[in-house]
Design a protein that fits this description.
homodimer, alpha/beta, Protocatechuate 3,4-Dioxygenase, subunit A, four-stranded mixed beta sheet, 16% strand, globular
Chain lengths: 339, 339
C-alpha cells in the first residue's frame, strides 16, 4: 500500500486522472494539479492558511449573482484575465487593434441605437462624441460592422451595479456602408472596482488603490472577422500605468478633443478612433471571450442583485486627492470630473 | 506607458502587490500569482477555457451551504488537502500516529457519549466495538483525552448529507485515566463522495470511481499535545490504494476481528487501535486543521441544506460489481456490506 510524500502525492493525483477521455481536459487539469501543488509546497501552506483560502473562495462564489461576477473580478485583479487576453490576442492571423478586457460589467441585454444617438440617459453636461472607422488589417473599410459600447454612467458606476433591471450607458450601433461609426456618450470616469466583496477585501489588504483608469468598452464584430473585444482609455488618466486589472495599454489611449473640425457632430468634445479587425481564422470561431455577462454565468435564483461596489469613503477621498487635475490642461483625470 | 507580454504581465501584478503589509500574505499571494500565470502559460489557456473555469469555480462556490463544503471537496479531490496534511504532519516535534483528512463532513455540533456507548441511532446488526489506548510518543498513557469520532451511517451516508438538522453516527468520548477509550459504532461503508455537484461532475468526467475506502474519522485532543486529526481505514477495502481524496495510508489500516479476547465488550466484532499523540509545539497552537465544519465556513442564509450526494445509479452498480467480497474471508469490502 502506498505512502505519500509531499512530492509523490502529486504523482498519485495525476495517475488517478490519467484516464480522462477528453485529452485537452486531461492536459489542463494535470497542469492545474502540478502548479497548485508546487504553489502549496513552495509556500509550505499551513492548515490555517488552507482553510482561509477555502473560506475566501467560498465567499467569492457566494458573492456571485446574475448582476455580479466576483470570480471574474478575482481573475482580473490577479492579472489572469489580462494574461489570457494577451495570449489570445497573439493568435490573430493579421495585425489589428489590440484587445482589452471584457470585464465583469458586460451584459447581453443591450439596446440598439441609431447612428449618432446618446447612450446615457442623463448626459448631464458631460457629452462626448465618438466617431471613427472600422477597417480591415489592410485599412479597407468594413461595411456595417456591429459596434457595442458600454461604460460608467455620470456617477462612475455601471448600470448593473445599481440592479439587474437598470440599463444605461450601453448600446449597440451599426457602422455605415463605408465603415464609419458615430455615437454620443458621456466622458467615462475612472472608478473603483467593487470593493465591498471578498476581492475588494483582498485588494485593500494588499494596499492597492483599487482603481481602473477611465475607459469605454467596445465589442466590434463583422462577418468574416475576429470579434474585437477592446476598450479605449482616456489620455491623462492617473491610473493608465497601474490599472488594478491590468487592462490599459498605450495603443488604446484615446484623446478627448474640443472643436475637432472633422467630427460629424459639432459643438461637443469628441474622440476619434479607428478600429482594425483581423480576418477570422477557424480557431477564432471557438476562442470565446475573456469575460461574460454575469447572468450567463450565474443563473438567477432570486438572490441579492441590489446595488453594490460603493468604495469605502476613505479610499474615495484618497482617490480624489490623487486625481488632482494635471497642469497640462483640461483632460479628465481620475475619479471625478475635472470640470 | 507599459505594454504587457505574457511574461511581463506577471511582474506587473507582483509589483502592484508589493506594498502588502502582511509579509506572509505577500509571500503566499506572490507565489499564487506566479504559479497561476505559469499554469495559464503552460497550457496556453484560451478565453473559452478560462470562462469554463470561471463558471466551474462559481458553481463550486454556489454549491456551498452550511451542510456542504464543495471547495473542501475540490481541494480533497485535487490532492491539495492531502498535500497540506502531509506537510503539516511532518512538522510534529515527535513521532506519533499519522494524520489523515478531516474532510467535508466534520461538524462542531456533536453529542457527548458515555464510555462504551453506541453512536449509531440504528446499529442495524452491524455493530462494531472500538477500543484502544491514547498514549504519548514514548508510549506512556495520556489520561482523559477527548476522542471525537464520526463516520457514515448504515446506509453509507453522513448525517449532514440528509440535512443540517440530522445528527447521527458521531460522538465525543473521554478516555479514562489510564488512556483507554471504548465505544461502539457500526461498520463504516466505503462511499461515493458527493457526485451531484460540480466537483462530482469533474470527477466523473475524469473517469474516476469517486469512492473513498470505508473509514472512521477521529479527532483526539489532550492538553499539551498536538491535536490529532486522523481516520482508520478498514483492511481489505478495494479502494485503500486509490482513495478519491488520497486520505488512506498503510499505518492507518485497522482490522475488524471476531472474538477478540482482549475486547472489553464481548460478542461483537471489534477494532483495536492505539493512538499516539505528539507533544504540542508553539507552532501547533496556530496550525489549524485541514478541514472545518461547513457551517463555520458558509453562514446559513436559509439556502438549500436538503439531502445531497446520492451517486448516479450506474456508478453505484459499478461499485457493487467491483466490491465483490474477497475470498480471504469476511472482511468488509467496498460500498455495501458483505453480509
Amino acid at each position: 500500500m502506498r505512502e505519500y510524500t509531499p512530492l509523490t502525492i502529486t504523482d498519485a493525483v495525476l495517475e488517478q486522472m490519467a484516464e480522462t477521455p477528453d485529452a485537452r481536459m486531461k492536459e489542463v487539469m494535470e497542469a492545474a494539479v502540478r502548479h497548485l501543488h508546487a504553489f502549496a509546497r513552495e509556500v509550505n501552506l499551513t492548515p490555517t492558511e488552507w482553510i482561509k483560502g477555502i473560506e475566501f473562495m467560498t465567499k467569492v462564489g457566494q458573492a456571485c449573482t446574475p448582476a455580479r461576477q466576483e470570480f471574474i473580478l478575482l481573475s482580473d485583479t490577479m492579472g489572469l484575465s489580462a494574461l489570457v487576453n494577451i495570449m489570445h490576442d497573439k493568435t490573430k492571423v493579421e495585425e489589428a487593434t489590440s484587445a482589452s478586457l471584457l470585464g465583469p460589467f458586460f451584459r447581453e441585454n443591450t439596446p440598439k441605437f441609431a447612428t449618432g444617438a446618446q447612450i446615457a440617459k442623463k448626459p448631464d453636461g458631460a457629452e462626448v462624441v465618438m466617431y471613427g472607422r472600422i477597417a480591415n488589417a489592410q485599412g479597407a473599410p468594413i461595411p456595417n460592422a456591429q459596434v457595442t459600447v458600454w461604460q460608467t454612467a455620470a456617477d462612475g458606476r455601471y448600470d448593473i451595479q445599481n440592479g439587474i433591471e437598470e440599463i444605461d450607458c450601453r448600446g449597440i450601433f451599426q457602422a455605415d456602408d463605408k465603415g464609419n461609426y458615430l455615437l454620443r456618450t458621456v466622458r467615462p470616469l475612472g472608478y473603483f472596482i467593487p470593493l465591498d466583496g471578498p476581492v475588494g477585501q483582498m485588494v485593500m489588504s494588499q494596499k492597492r488603490h483599487g482603481m481602473r483608469p477611465a475607459h469605454i468598452h467596445f465589442l466590434i464584430s463583422a462577418p468574416g472577422y475576429r470579434e474585437l473585444v477592446t476598450a479605449l482609455y482616456l489620455a491623462g488618466d492617473a491610473h493608465l500605468d497601474d490599472d488594478v486589472v491590468f487592462g490599459a495599454s498605450a495603443d488604446l489611449v484615446a484623446h478627448v478633443k474640443d472643436g475637432d473640425p472633422a467630427c460629424p457632430i459639432k459643438g461637443l468634445p469628441s474622440i476619434q478612433f479607428d478600429f482594425n479587425l483581423a480576418r477570422e481564422s477557424e480557431a477564432d470561431r471557438r476562442a470565446g471571450r475573456v469575460g461574460a455577462d454575469p447572468a450567463a454565468v450565474t443563473a438567477s435564483d432570486g438572490k441579492n442583485t441590489t446595488p453594490y461596489g460603493a468604495p469605502p469613503p476613505e479610499m474615495a477621498a484618497a482617490a480624489v486627492a490623487a486625481a488632482e487635475p494635471k497642469k497640462s490642461g483640461g483632460i479628465f483625470s481620475g475619479l471625478f470630473r475635472s470640470r
